[in-house]
Design brief:
By secondary structure, this protein is α+β, with helices and mostly antiparallel strands. 23% of the residues lie in helices and 29% in strands. It has six helices and 14 strands. The protein has helices spanning 32-42, 58-69, 137-151, 170-178, 182-185, 224-230, and strands spanning 9-10, 16-24, 46-50, 72-76, 85-88, 93-97, 100-101, 112-119, 126-132, 157-162, 180-181, 204-208, 213-218, 236-242. Strands 1, 2, 3, 4, 5, 13 and 14 form a seven-stranded mixed sheet that branches. Strands 6, 7, 8, 9, 10, 11 and 12 form a seven-stranded mixed sheet that branches. Helix 1 links the parallel strand 2 (16-24) and strand 3 (46-50). The longest helix has 15 residues, at 137-151. The mean pLDDT is 94.
Length: 248
């Protein structure tokens, strides 16, 4: 099905409409082909993945996902970013990569950021970060601060991920004070990113810096059977208007 969203592409003033998808894929342990179908149905220019496989052939599994979704690996994946992965259309210009492993508590999962500076068409370059933050409150608070540091490598930036926190919590609130929370700015589709039947939660989001216009953001109205088969989170799609290089 076609989503009721503005199509990606160049604008007369040099700006670019960019579709960003954020998705926790639970290490591709569910129905991988349903997962690929969901991603293709969202028609993203950029995909911010969380929980990409890290231990069993991580590069091969990232390549499989890219191949079956019409994208290429931009950055992250496997052990280089401890799960987060960036995919993009083949036309995306990758100007630099900025993966980062994070400090962690003994006995807990390693976590990291998948990061890159990218450009689409005639748009201004912008930093893109995929993240999956900790379950541990103090560790997550530190990661929120490091996330801002990561994104601030460019004036224009987009952050997407599974934050393991709710919009009313302090880390999320601090981030929303610096960046636009996509759903809160331009709600579209569904709000909650937990699976139907689970407690309703919004743990996943797309944030954009001032200077990037958020046109729409939310959970796409796709086949419930496909969404339930693909993974244990629901995807978040954002349509962003990135200014042209001369206007940034």
């Amino acid at each position: 099905m076609s989503l009721d969203l503005p199509p990606s592409g160049p604008q007369p003033d040099g700006a670019e409409l960019v579709r960003v998808l954020s998705y926790n894929i639970r290490s591709q342990r569910d129905d991988r082909r349903a997962l690929a179908r969901v991603i293709r149905a969202c028609e993203p220019d950029l995909v911010c993945v969380q929980e990409s496989p890290r231990y069993w052939r991580p590069e091969g599994q990232a390549a499989w996902l890219a191949r079956h979704t019409g994208t290429v690996v931009v950055s992250g994946g496997g052990r280089t970013a401890a799960g987060p992965l960036l995919l993009g259309r083949p036309e995306v210009q990758v100007l630099s990569r900025h993966d980062r492993l994070l400090p962690k508590h003994r006995g807990w999962h390693a976590r990291g950021f998948a990061g890159a500076v990218v450009r689409l068409g005639r748009s201004a370059p912008f930093a893109l970060t995929s993240c999956h933050l900790s379950f541990i409150g103090p560790e997550r608070a530190q990661q929120f601060e490091l996330l801002h540091e990561q994104a601030a490598i460019r004036e224009l930036s987009v952050i997407a991920g599974d934050f393991n926190e709710h919009p009313e919590d302090p880390g999320w609130g601090a981030l929303a004070g610096r960046y636009q929370d996509g759903w809160a700015t331009a709600p579209w589709g569904g709000e909650y990113t937990s699976r139907p039947g689970d407690p309703l939660q919004r743990l996943d989001a797309v944030f954009a810096s001032p200077g990037i216009e958020v046109l729409a953001c939310g959970v796409p109205p796709l086949s419930l059977a496909e969404l339930l088969a693909a993974t244990d989170h629901l995807p978040v799609v954002a349509v962003l208007r990135v200014p042209g290089a001369s206007a940034a």
